[in-house]
Design a protein that fits this description.
By secondary structure, the protein is mainly α. The protein is built from 13 helices and no strands.
C-alpha cells in the first residue's frame, strides 16, 4: 500500500509541470472549439475524452465542416493512432500480473508527455504513478479548453482571431525540432505542405471535406515515407562487436602460465 501511495505522489509531482503546459496549449485549442460552436462543458468533455491537441483540432475541423460522425471517427483514429504504439511499448514495463483494468485505465490516460515520464521511470512501472500524473495533467488540459471557450465568448473577435493562430504556432514548434534533427522528416513536412497546396487546386477533390483530405494525405505521404525511408534498426550489442580474432600462440601460452 505504501508503495502505491509513493508512486501516486511521484506521479502528481511529475504531472504538475505537464498540467501547466497543457493549460496554455488547451486555452488556444478552446478558441478553435468556440469557433466550432462548442460550449464550455462540451469543450471540457471533449478534452477529457480526447487527450491530444492534433486529435482535437481534427475533431473541431470536422465539426466546422459539418462532416458525418464516421468521418470524425476515421480522422481521430488516424491522428491519434500513435497512442496505440505508445500503449504497446508501455505495457512492457508492467509486471506480468498487472490486472487488465490497470492496463486499460493507464492506456486511456496516455499522452505524449505522460508516456515520456512513464517510459523514462526506472524499473517496472506502477500504474498508480500514471494515475497521479493523470490526476493533475488531464484536468489541466480539459479546464484549459473550457476556459478558452469562455474567453472566446467574451473577447473581441479580433483578439479571438489572433489567439487562434497560437495553435498553429504549437504545431510549428512540434515539427521544427524533428525537422532539424532528421532530413527525412524535414522532407516529409515540406512535401506535405506542397502536396496540400496542390491538392487544394484540383477540382477532383472539391467534393471532399478538408478533414478527409488531411486524413488521406497523411496516410499516403506517411506510407510512402515509411516505404522509401524506413528507420534503420540499431544493431544489437552482440552484432556490433567485431568478429572474434584468432588467439595468438603467445596468448595461449599466457593462459597456461
Amino acid at each position: 500500500m505504501n508503495k502505491n501511495k509513493n508512486a501516486f505522489a511521484d506521479g502528481i509531482k511529475d504531472g504538475i509541470p505537464i498540467a501547466a503546459g497543457y493549460f496554455a496549449v488547451a486555452f488556444s485549442l478552446g478558441i478553435v472549439a468556440k469557433k466550432a460552436g462548442l460550449n464550455p462543458f462540451q469543450g471540457f468533455l471533449s478534452s477529457f475524452l480526447n487527450h491530444a491537441s492534433a486529435g482535437e483540432y481534427a475533431e473541431f475541423t470536422v465539426i466546422m465542416a459539418n462532416a458525418p460522425y464516421l468521418e470524425m471517427a476515421v480522422v481521430i483514429l488516424i491522428t491519434n493512432i500513435r497512442y496505440l504504439l505508445m500503449s504497446c511499448a508501455l505495457s512492457q514495463k508492467f509486471h506480468a500480473d498487472t490486472s487488465l483494468p490497470h492496463r486499460f485505465f493507464t492506456g486511456f490516460g496516455i499522452t505524449d508527455e505522460i508516456f515520456g515520464i512513464s517510459i523514462a521511470r526506472p524499473g517496472m512501472l506502477n500504474p498508480y504513478y500514471n494515475y497521479g500524473a493523470m490526476l493533475v495533467a488531464l484536468p489541466g488540459w480539459s479546464a484549459g479548453t473550457a476556459i478558452g471557450i469562455v474567453a472566446g465568448n467574451i473577447l473581441p473577435a479580433s483578439v479571438v482571431s489572433a489567439l487562434s493562430v497560437a495553435l498553429y504556432g504549437m504545431f510549428v514548434a512540434i515539427i521544427t525540432p524533428a525537422s532539424k534533427q532528421n532530413k527525412v522528416v524535414a522532407g516529409v513536412v515540406t512535401a506535405s505542405f506542397a502536396v496540400s497546396f496542390i491538392v487544394s487546386g484540383i477540382p477532383l477533390f472539391d467534393q471532399m471535406s478538408a478533414s478527409m483530405k488531411i486524413s488521406l494525405l497523411t496516410v499516403v505521404i506517411a506510407g510512402l515515407a515509411a516505404a522509401f525511408f524506413p528507420i534503420q534498426e540499431e544493431p544489437d550489442a552482440d552484432d556490433a562487436q567485431t568478429p572474434d580474432q584468432p588467439i595468438s600462440n603467445k596468448e595461449v601460452s599466457g593462459y597456461g602460465a
